[in-house]
Amino acid sequence: MSDAGQRVLVVDDENSIRRYLRAALSAQGFTVYEAASGEEAVNAVLNDRPDIIILDLGLPDFDGIEVTRRLREWSNIPIIILSVREAENDKIAALDAGADDYLTKPFSTGELMARMRVALRRLTSKPDEPVLQVDNLKMDVSRRLVTVDENQVSLTPTEYEILRLLLQNAGRVLTHRQLLKQVWGTAYESEMHILRVNISNLRRKIEPDPSRPHYLLTEPGVGYRIRV
Question: Could you tell me which residues come within 8 angstroms of residue 127 by beta carbon, excluding any fewer than 6 positions away?
Fold first, then answer.
């Protein structure tokens, strides 16, 4: 995938971080826009139409979680949080607000680029794609058929729905709350044990070694994602 001509908005109140990211991203062919506050970020999205946003949480007016919420009211532009905050509740709040990924400072430029590629690739893929595949795990959505190494796997309707959501968002962390809400409904958002049981059963069916998952990975304290 070529990054040439793609636009990225960097939102951070630290000039040194913006300057570093501007140099690193420009070298990869991105056109870089900058914002130092939440209000500037929202205006920049309206005016500059970026393809992806790198967003800090600690902004001088309103924080990155509020920026994410406001943007998600009308935009599906990929948002990657880049923050010094490492607490699970900060990560969960950002992802629940609609962020696509979360990376803590200090960070590797290579890892940031990789996560940006995943987010951009997911945006350009068709959400109703009939076949979802990661390595040898394949889901034929139109036929409701799941195979691993060409062998059909029998899933319950709930297991199938969990796997479909994760595959459609491959590479992206889905929080426990997001999965519970989308699969079971808002009344079940705190029923963690139900999710854990289904994830365990799902792993037994799709993983070569359930104790060392290859496909369905845990983000401790946050949620789950499919490896890409």
Answer: 168
